[in-house]
Design goal:
Blueprint: H1 2-32, H2 37-44, H3 51-59, H4 67-79, H5 83-108, H6 111-123, H7 125-129, H8 136-154, H9 160-176, H10 178-191, H11 200-214, H12 218-227, H13 244-252, H14 257-273, H15 280-302, H16 316-324, H17 333-354, H18 367-380, E1 385-390, H19 394-403, H20 422-431, E2 436-442, H21 450-457, E3 460-467, E4 470-476, E5 491-496, E6 503-504, E7 516-518, E8 527-531, E9 542-551, E10 559-565, E11 575-580, E12 591-599, E13 609-615, E14 622-632
Parallel strand pairs: 1-2
Antiparallel strand pairs: 2-4, 3-4, 5-14, 6-8, 7-14, 8-13, 9-12, 9-14, 10-11, 10-13
Helix pairs in contact: 1-5, 1-6, 5-6, 5-8, 6-16, 6-17, 8-9, 8-10, 9-10, 9-11, 10-15, 15-16, 18-19, 20-21
């Protein structure tokens, strides 16, 4: 009796300590880390006067079910919309979910496995990150936890509480996130093989009730399904490749090779020693994760890209539970506990001491852009500082300035996707009469040509701040206070016509003492050709070309081209990128300097061949006076850590 009391006390006390630690870690991040663009986007879609407008204009055009938006609608009306406050319900849901998953693991396997599972869910940054965000992830995580815990109770205690857990688990998953709904459906199929046959009808009834509860949302679901998601035409998400699965495990385990290999070693050792004790439940849980992953992968490959690491959050606890199973059950209880606590302490130490978790290290900054803008405008006076943004909506910055009780400055432009839109950015910059110019962007593509436009008028960089997928810069006409080692400092590779011998000439009529003339007789410029090893040294660097030219007729076209070719590649072109330089100016502006800047893909190798040239698609007469090929440092962690080019 005493031993049983000690056992119960160890489980209860340890799990309680883990949950308290999980809550404190998440709530600290909720109130100290600035809000993300994804969260502000959700708040933007609350700006309606009625609940019906919220559903029609805030939920229906989005790609997620209604639960999170509805929750935020009522929550913000009661408690406000500051970053920390809007995250509180999501922190609570994610924390409670950890306890529910642990209890399910205890019901199916052992207490030590449950404790270890809770520790991993509490302190691996993948689960912390999505347990803080005011987005659908924590909600889906919570409802899947309800469902899993309910299924774990079916065999021993199928009472009214179990029935309610299953109904709300199924329905809540469907209302929170469509990948949570997929996980729930696959889990329901898998449950056929792990619950007693006599209970199948009851479980099926709970799923049927949940389906009925989802019917009011069905028209919204069909509308969202027709939108096509975040990939495909006009989308930003690409198709996954075979490397995605390795990258996903890397993401789960703190994006750390050490943590990943540590867990892999423990999991392999545990599996080898405990292979004969592998249960049917473990196999089913692993298969559920595999089916969810495979469905998302194949759908993304052949229909529309939707697979991201975040959407696999809901099935991830099932993967861990399936791997852990009866964790080292053949060892003495004290040894099991020792190994369990040691692993949890490693996870806790990593995220709190070795590399303290910060939410904004994984998302583009917004509040920092507003705060630095306010600081610089106070220093130089608002009238003397022009501002331009590249963000998804003006509300994003309005929200951030409001949160810091600062006036929102008017911006010359808020969004620019480059290419054909570069003309608008250039015209807006040219209209500026201020002494200083601020350009900031976050969580969207920022055309690398825009800083070149700004530097024409504001040639000095006074300040530069770069973060993951975001940045802000202060430019000036005055050299006072300028920094020398800024991201846009050019390193010239080659210049034409001064170094004409480095460029192959396609036209016999070319005269190096006169401007290069491109027309129907010679539509291609000389070509600069060199191994990538002599051009770029790291994937974060950018390569660019500045071209001074004159169009002899309004609207004449001039295109700059970068090519990458690989020896032995059956395709002539490994990579081709082009920019219509003439589109950067009004059709009736004849003489100008255009820019094309590119961050080369990290799949390139140092022995790939790089080529640069110009041509006139419409064969209209154009005089080219100067071509300067250059590199810049670029954004040093634009998409996170990027590997160097392969040798």
């Amino acid at each position: 009796m005493l031993r049983r009391a000690i056992t119960i006390n160890f489980y209860t006390v340890t799990l309680s300590a883990i949950l308290v630690g999980a809550f404190l870690l998440r709530i600290k991040s909720a109130f100290t880390d600035s809000i993300t663009a994804d969260e502000v986007s959700a708040l933007l879609r609350l700006q309606f006067s009625s609940f019906s407008e919220l559903l029609d204009n805030g939920v229906r055009p989005d790609g997620h079910p209604a639960f999170t938006q509805v929750l935020l609608w009522f929550w913000t009306k009661c408690f406000g919309d500051s970053a920390g406050v809007v995250r509180i319900p999501f922190v609570l849901m994610s924390t409670v979910a950890i306890g529910l998953f642990a209890h399910a693991c205890k019901n199916w396997f052992t207490e030590n496995a449950a404790i270890l599972l809770a520790g991993l869910l509490a302190f691996l940054q993948f689960f912390v990150m999505y347990g803080v965000l005011a987005r659908p992830y924590a909600a889906g995580f919570f409802f899947i936890a309800l469902l899993v815990y309910g299924l774990s109770r079916v065999t021993k205690n199928f009472n009214g509480a179990t029935f309610a857990l299953l109904v709300f688990g199924f329905a809540g998953a469907a209302y929170s996130h469509y990948f949570a709904a997929l996980t729930a459906v696959v889990l329901a199929v898998g449950a056929i093989f792990i619950i007693p046959k006599r209970q199948l009808l009851r479980v099926a009834l709970t799923a049927a009730i949940a389906l009925v509860l989802f019917l009011p949302h069905f028209s919204i679901f069909l509308r969202q399904l027709s939108l096509g998601g975040i990939g495909g035409p006009g989308g930003w998400l690409g198709k996954p490749d075979i490397n995605f699965i390795g990258a996903h495990f890397f993401t789960i385990f703190n994006q750390s090779q050490g943590v990943l290999w540590l867990f892999a070693a423990v999991a392999i050792l545990h599996t080898v020693l405990n292979f004969r004790n592998t249960s049917r439940i473990q196999i089913i849980l692993l298969l559920v994760w595999l089916v969810v992953f495979a469905t998302g992968f194949l759908y993304s490959m052949y229909i529309n890209p939707v697979l991201q690491h975040s959407v696999l959050l809901f099935a991830a606890p099932l993967l861990l539970m399936g791997i852990l199973g009866s964790f080292f059950i053949q060892l003495h209880a004290s040894m099991q506990r020792g190994i369990t606590i040691a692993i949890i302490l490693v996870a806790l130490s990593y995220i709190t001491w070795y590399k303290p978790f910060q939410l904004t290290n994984h998302f583009g900054r917004l509040q920092e852009l507003a705060d630095l803008t306010t600081e610089w405008q106070k220093k130089y006076t608002p009238q003397n500082v022009s501002v331009a943004w590249n963000i998804d909506d003006p509300y994003f910055m309005e929200y951030c300035f409001h949160q810091s009780n600062a006036a929102t400055p008017s911006a010359l432009f808020y969004k620019n996707d480059g290419y054909a839109e570069l003309l608008a950015a250039r015209e807006a910059i040219n209209k500026s009469t201020a002494e200083y110019f601020i350009y900031g962007w976050s969580t969207r593509y920022s055309p690398p040509e825009i800083p070149s436009f700004i530097l024409e008028k504001y040639p000095h960089v006074i300040a530069s701040h770069q973060w993951f997928n975001s940045a802000i810069y202060l430019f000036s006409k005055n050299p006072a206070g300028a920094i020398q080692d800024h991201p846009f400092k050019n390193q010239t590779i080659a210049v034409f016509p001064e170094q004409a011998t480095s460029w192959s000439t396609p036209c016999a009529t070319f005269n190096p003492k006169q401007p290069l003339t491109l027309d129907s007789n010679c539509m291609y410029s000389p070509t600069y050709e060199r191994l990538l090893q002599g051009v770029l040294h790291h994937a974060d660097e950018q390569i660019g070309v500045a071209v001074s030219f004159r169009r002899h007729t309004p609207g004449a076209q001039l295109q700059a081209v970068f090519e990458f070719k690989r020896e032995g590649n059956p395709l002539a072109e490994y990579g081709w990128n082009g920019m219509m330089l003439s589109a950067q100016f009004p059709p009736d502006t004849l003489t100008h300097t255009g820019y094309f800047v590119l961050q080369a893909p990290p799949t390139l190798q140092l022995n790939d061949l790089f080529r640069c040239y110009l041509y006139t698609p419409d064969q209209s007469r154009t005089s080219v006076y100067n071509i300067e090929l250059f590199t810049t440092k670029g954004h040093t962690f634009l998409y996170g850590s990027r590997p160097p080019f392969a040798p």
